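Troubleshooting entry. The earlier prediction with magnesium ion gave an output that would not parse, so I re-checked the input for stray whitespace and re-submitted. Clean input:
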Amino acid sequence: RGIIDSFSSILNEESKKDPSVSSSSTSSESMNGIDGVPVTNERIAYKLKGYFDLAKEEIAKGVRAEEWGLHDDALLHYRNAQRIMNEATSTPSPSYISSSEKEKVRSYREKISNWQNQVSERLQALGKRTGVGMSENKRTVAYPSSASVSSTASRYRKTLSQKTPVARGGVATPRNPKDAAASPKPVKESGNVYDDKLVEMINTTIVDRSPSVKWDDVAGLNGAKQALLEMVILPAKRRDLFTGLRRPARGLLLFGPPGNGKTMLAKAVASESQATFFNVSASSLTSKWVGEAEKLVKTLFQVAISRQPSVIFMDEIDSIMSTRSTSENEASRRLKSEFLIQFDGVTSNPDDLVIVIGATNKPQELDDAVLRRLVKRIYVPLPDSNVRKLLFKTKLKCQPHSLSDGDIDKIVKETEGYSGSDLQALCEEAAMMPIRELGANILTIQANKVRSLRYDDFRKSMAVIRPSLSKSKWEELERWNSEFGSN
Ligand code: ATP
Ligand code: MG
């Protein structure tokens, strides 16, 4: 608390503008030199002021986040501030420098170094409170539930080391020299700290190497798996084979009723393919800390190109790329058109392997222009009886039960219309039945004395857990599939 106060007082003091390096002095007059001071000397003070202002902004955000109890956000902002200030301190002063200039530079350096100490202190304090591994974990992994802390921490280190070539050297993959002029600019323009921040944010919050779901964990969905294999997994492994006519489609839409494995499939792609996986959610694009979503989209595609082969996965894509009708504001319109421009950029360059995968359960609401670019559209339907049987068998594997094959067939028949997640809920409910019968004995009974599951438990649970998809919704999706789907 005390340190936050002292920070705040510094911030307030700094907001009284420093007249010696005011923004108006960037006018052409000053670029020609004021009072005979050569331009090069002026620049170091401007540069430091630039770093100084950026760092100030980040620190202010960090302090605010800390006040709100958002420790992860605070850590992120303090780290950004630290990086900016490190760049400032590593900027050398020119050998010739006028004495008034020298004074300004000295004063900035002093203030920056003072802040550096305080920021390190805050980082240390916050690190202790949240456990640094944990907070990195949250920022790195979009699916925090299943991965263990240590494995994600090591993954974070990997992310950091992978990131370095992007941040330092711009586009890392060699590109066709003839279209170098037309190709997107390198990720890092020298001195553009703001872009660095976006790149950092993309690398920490959006890049995902989630190992949690394996290919075989996803039951059924063979059509979808085959398409992903041909579009993403194999081309990433054998780029030489997938050229010319075999060049994979760049846009894929997974659509279908909720809870049938769309997100799961994408997670499996992330863990099984060698492509860099960018997991973009509506919240990461519209985060209040970022503000300029379309700039983020632009940078996202640039980073994806530089780290290709890449997959950009947009879950619930309808919420970002919906048609005009639903309360569209200026910001989301700009975001959408930036996405279209960038996507056309990567599809038109035959050397780029950047694939966009969208997932939605409301394909009808997708913007037409976006839909047109997601050329391959794969229906992820409700599980049929074979898939339901497979799901039951895998779920029952880890639970003692006395169900015969005939019982399982009966359950499979009775769960027509259940989605994958409904079935999961049904099994969980059934598994609770023997526990509920125990009453007060639950505290004393030995674990292996709990009775095994039987058919009756499932039958009772079916009264509680009903299929979540209404018939009309299902019919609507089926109709959309026959009109727009690829299979
Ligand atoms: P939504 O449209 O609501 O985002 P979704 O299609 O993305 O739904 P998932 O999140 O992938 O659905 O699946 C929800 C849960 O249902 C999974 O965590 C899993 O437990 C179970 N499930 C669904 N489909 C399958 C499947 N094919 N194989 C194994 N488990 C499945
Ligand atoms: Mg989903």
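This one parsed fine. DSSP finds 20 helices and five strands in the chain.
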